[in-house]
Amino acid sequence: MKVRQEIFDTYWRFSAMRQEVFFNKIKNVPPPWTSDPILNTYKFCNAYRVSDRVSQYLIKNVIYNGNRSQNEEEVLFRILLFKIFNKIETWEYLENKIGDYITLSNFDLDIYSNILQDAMDLGYVIYTSAYMSCASKEFGYDKKHQNHLALIDKMVFQDKVINPIVKAKSFEEIFHIIEGYPLLGKFMAYQLATDINYSEVINFDENSFTIAGPGAERGINKCFIDIEGKSYADVIHWMTENQENEFQRLGLNFQSLWGRPLQAIDCQNLFCETDKYCRAAFPDLKSNRKKIKAKFTPTPQPIDYFYPPKWCINDKVKETLAERLPPLEIPNLQDNCQQLSLELDSFVKPTSKISDNLSKLHKKSQQNTQNKKLKAVQNADTEKSHQLCLF
Fold this sequence. Notes:
Shape: globular
Structural class: mainly alpha
Oligomer: single chain
Mean pLDDT: 86
């Protein structure tokens, strides 16, 4: 294969830098967490898919929550329902309105549909913005969410999809079972197979099968001049198998996930993130997408990271979390005023008086934290000499 060297090397440098940001945030190191201006400006997924906020919520709250049933069919149902919308607020809104945990016994297509329709009528967005989901009227309903709920009903209740899934002999077979249903497609089927594999329902090697999503295909085309007849999946597998050599070649100190190397799903995602990064780093590089849409905004609450117990890394994670510095105070009041939250039961439009009061409160907060910010910046300056820099 013929690589476009500067972009190919950027893939590995981005991976190392993004993982360094991950660990700096975990340890509550004062920002900026990197000296790279692009990473400081725009939002990028983690090097490890499983560390992203929504994946962490899925694992901790939807799959392994001790108050929920660990029956295989219940677990599968919850994963499918959560991931079809892939939004924490939607899941919590549903449970809040139901007044109980989501279970097989309380699933009702019409009730769930009406709850979500009420949310949309109030102006809420119930689907993730991370990717586009299919919106055809496959099951005869006018609204996308109704057809998706009908899909869940067919998979779980009518077809008992749990049976072929638990009998599957390979990760690829899981993918094909899911892909066989409408409204999903190859990319979504791969994502769902990966999420189910986080649970105890199945247990396959993540590196045994992969496919490239549209973003990953764009990233591969930027990193390689010619893949010489190989498939996109072949390229992803090559990256997975050669990661240690490439990090060593470039002198990069890549911090793995507590000893767990990048998996095929991660290398696939990193091609997508590299494609995004290159839009800013190499604007003259041919691309059908020119800009990075999402800007980076810090989240006020740190995540207590938890991974599938079968990976045997959670003890190491706990040790790292125990050593974290006290959390930084990050005032974010103005942003909160502008965001709709599905945690609210009513839709409130702030008056100008309320807005004025919030503005005054925000200014007061800024004054109270000014000394802390100055100290944080000074600390960050000393850290910069130890950061990796892509350019």
